[in-house]
Amino acid sequence: MIYRKLGRTDIDVSAICLGSMTWGTQNSEAEAHEQLDYAVDEGVNFIDTAEMYPTNPMSKETKGDTERFIGSWLARSGRRSDVVIATKITGPGRDYVRGGRKIDRAGILEAVDESLKRLQTDYIDLYQLHWPNRGSYHFRQSWTFDPSKQDSQQAQNDIAEALQALDEVVKAGKVRHVGLSNESAWGTAQYLKVAEAGGLPRVQSIQNEYSLMQRIFDLDLGELAHHENVGLLAYSPLAAGLLTGKYQGDVTPAGTRRAATPDLGGRIGAISFAVIDEYLAVARKHGLDPAQMALAFCLSRHFMTSVIIGATSMAQLRTNIASVDVTLGDDVLDDIQAIYRRYPVPM
Q1: Cβ atoms 205, 232 nearer than 8 A
Q2: CA-CA distance, 11 to 210, in Å (whole number)?
């Protein structure tokens, strides 16, 4: 396993992070524990979750079950000191989470305590804001995103309030470090500026979508990540499974994510399958497993701290973790770049 520093902290996290959002819908508690046992034995020390998980689908009835599964594993295994746990507070808009209200001081204090109980731990290593109050272009919203409708002063007030509340939980020993998710370059820069000016916790990471099919992080956020040492934790590095090839031909295998979410959260568009065909051809040409090629590409990026993998089967988990041992040669990277130049935003 490869390990990298989490931002400017002294924490080393595995370059592969074990994602958990299927635990509680597509995976049982016993299967979650099996995945955790295997991954940690393989050197994975980084686990990502969220108070609103599981997904596919998300619901009031299952909210928090994923954290509970991790908590029962921690209690059973006694391996709390072996892992770095990252979780998130839900952003506004989910009515079954604190009435759908925006992230505020009271919500952060409440959510941290609830996550600690479900996780059966005294501290959270990385606490992340799942998405910003002001909205964002993530989750396939780039086509309608309009920042001119944002209230600049309110956005900055929200950032200051969140950082002050996070400072409280850090000082209380409940959280070690903080991070962002589904943020923009402007938002991240504001968090850094406000934290530095007020002696508040510095954001150490940003968890955004990144894959061969979604590379907008390469641009302004990639530059910010480099200069400010706020590394990317990439989610959906396989484009919700599209890059494995299992949906090619517009099929939906039973038990897959697409069976619950037909368009995979808007990832399936007019040219998606055609572009994926090209990436699959590159993998075949160079004798690579397509999932491992896609993950190895993410791992090679200069701004990458950790790539978050998700699996519903142990076979998938083994394949995905093994991608850490795959190095892509210049010939592979040149072929990938040629496709990217033709299709920079294919979904």
Answers
A1: yes
A2: 23
Say which of 3, 38, 53, 235 is annotated catalytic. Answer: 53
Q: How many CB atoms lie within 10 A of CB 259?
A: 12
Q: What is the residue-wise DSSP string for 13-50?
A: EESEEEE-TTBTTTB-HHHHHHHHHHHHHTT--EEE--
Annotation says 127 is catalytic: no
Angle at 181 (CA atoms; ends 178, 183), nearest 5 degrees = 115
Q: How far apart are CA 169 and CA 112, in angstroms?
A: 8
Q: What is the pLDDT along the chain (347 residues), one digit of tens a residue?
A: 999 999 999 999 999 999 999 999 999 999 999 999 999 999 999 999 999 999 988 899 999 999 999 999 999 999 999 999 999 999 999 999 999 999 999 999 999 999 999 999 999 999 999 999 999 999 888 889 999 999 999 999 999 999 999 999 999 999 999 999 999 999 999 999 999 999 999 999 999 999 999 999 999 999 999 999 999 999 999 998 899 988 888 888 888 888 878 887 878 887 889 999 999 999 999 999 999 999 999 999 999 999 999 999 999 999 999 999 999 999 999 999 999 999 998 88
Residue of 177, 13, 205 whose CA lies nearest to 4: 13
What beta strand segments (E) does the chain contain?
3-5, 12-14, 16-19, 46-48, 84-89, 124-129, 175-181, 203-209, 231-235, 304-309
Identify the CA nearest to 172 among candidates 120, 232, 235, 127.
Answer: 127
Spatial separation of the C-alpha atoms in residues 112 and 108, rounded to whole Å: 6
Token pair listed for 340: 């990217």
Gap between the Cα atoms of 238 and 292, Å rounded: 9
Residue 159 CB-half CA count within 13 A: 26
Q: Which sign, positive or negative, has the C-alpha torsion 87, 91, 97, 102?
A: positive
pTM value is 0.95
